[in-house]
Amino acid sequence: xxxxxxxxxxxxxxxxxxxxxxxxxxxxxxxxxxxxxxxxxxxxxxxxxxxxxxxxxxxxxxxxxxxxxxxxxxxxxxxxxxxxxxxxxxxxxxxxxxxxxxxxxxxxxxxxxxxxxxxxxxxxxxxxxxxxxxxxxxxxxxxxxxxxxxxxxxxxxxxxxxxxxxxxxxxxxxxxxxxxxxxxxxxxxxxxxxxxxxxxxxxxxxxxxxxxxxxxxxxxxxxxxxxxxxxxxxxxxxxxxxxxxxxxxxxxxxxxxxxxxxxxxxxxxxxxxxxxxxxxxxxxxxxxxxxxxxxxxxxxxxxxxxxxxxxxxxxxxxxxxxxxxxxxxxxxxxxxxxxxxxxxxxxxxxxxxxxxxxxxxxxxxxxxxxxxxxxxxxxxxxxxxxxxxxxxxxxxxxxxxxxxxxxxxxxxxxxxxxxxxxxxxxxxxxxxxxxxxxxxxxxxxxxxxxxxxxxxxxxxxxxxxxxxxxxxxxxxxxxxxxxxxxxxxxxxxxxxxxxxxxxxxxxxxxxxxxxxxxxxxxxxxxxxxxxxxxxxxxxxxxxxxxxxxxxxxxxxxxxxxxxxxxxxxxxxxxxxxxxxxxxxxxxxxxxxxxxxxxxxxxxxxxxxxxxxxxxxxxxxxxxxxxxxxxx
Length: 631
Prior knowledge:
Rossmann fold, alpha/beta
């Protein structure tokens, strides 16, 4: 039988942990040998100095020093391999933690991308603590993290207040259903490529302690022969950068042999210093930017090479791979060339080299020339390379979710306005306690009126409905046995709180959210799935019922579809009222089960209107039995 996802990751974790243990033991042994060699070097030197050993003993010292250097190199390589094995252990451990429900302890929760105003982000726990993002995120860069957040937020500007144009665009995948289908196919393709996703996570984990943001490097790379970096370097500099070092070194050598005055080399050396001093305002910023903004170029090259080497089936992945060759040569090769140039730039960090050797060789000029050539050749393509990496990271996050949740299903994406789900559940609820329900919203202008007692599952149902659309639009599987869904935009009013800073009451804050829902239904940007939980509770019963009925009638008339939960049983009369106007509303409910003084819930959705309430019983359970005595 095929391994389960849990077995796959447990096996791979154990294999990588054995690698860690073996490499740790090897590193310890090499360290011991290094110590022995170091002691031998000291002892031999002491013996040469204090004992009458022949001068040839210095050869043995030299051999031991070379052996020590070799051991240092070997030790560093073992530690590098051990770090990679540890990163692989972490990748598989995190996968196991996600499957066991421990993901809520993960540090990356997407809080930085939480928008100031959004039609559904807060109500559906898309970002933040215990959020959908926290469950999904397996990105290694800030750029990849942002792409994942944007997909889950309906692709507005992540982390910013949504403008009117953004609000119309949020979740509007109707205009490009093909893009969502391509993303879904890419997630399917990556789901079983555990080895590739592990390799990406390992390479990404070695970039930096915190998720690096490569966009500053992208901006620098695009500054080709224009402001912000360095002005075009004149062609004469190439000649000067060649002639002056030749003169300096040549005259220095000739001076050693007495062919010219010993200090003759100082003339071209001084000329080199003068030229470099004049160029410093132009080339200094370029060299500093190359040296300081991106210290992990070789590791980015490794990430790029993983994509370049893989053979993909999904069209989107094949297209992303093709984008990496935009500059004419492979992105991996170009990044490796840049890493080599930067290593030469970083040689300037040695003070002796910087002030003595570098001026004689006009080192800074040659480095600047090399960087300018690289930017001219590849700089314009860098942005696309990192965009490819960001999308690959986001897709790998969704693919990991797909692999780890084999009970989830990829929804059937259709162009019709429809929402059908069999055994729909909420993915943030652990499988052991999750209860699934069938949901049907057949066509535009349909609604579910959800009644039920407190804590029976009404809000969870609405959130499960919304989260399924969010995942479907991102290209991910949904928590259901079967789902058929059209291009819906989600708009919710569920969690509402007042704001002392803005001076708004809870009721006024709710009205603003409801206005956003209605505005989206009116704007013509695509069909809206509205999810309204216990709306208008800041006013009296009569006005609450009038307002709620009017709002639902308007939304349905505009072709929106959705669900509204309520304790006002009179709202259930909308089923008959809307039917008389050719629209469709269905009453469904949750109910509690009571045995003696014990009340339980099965969270199963049933047709019709709830016939029981539990508010007084709950008040008595928590000790407010004074209500019961006065009833």
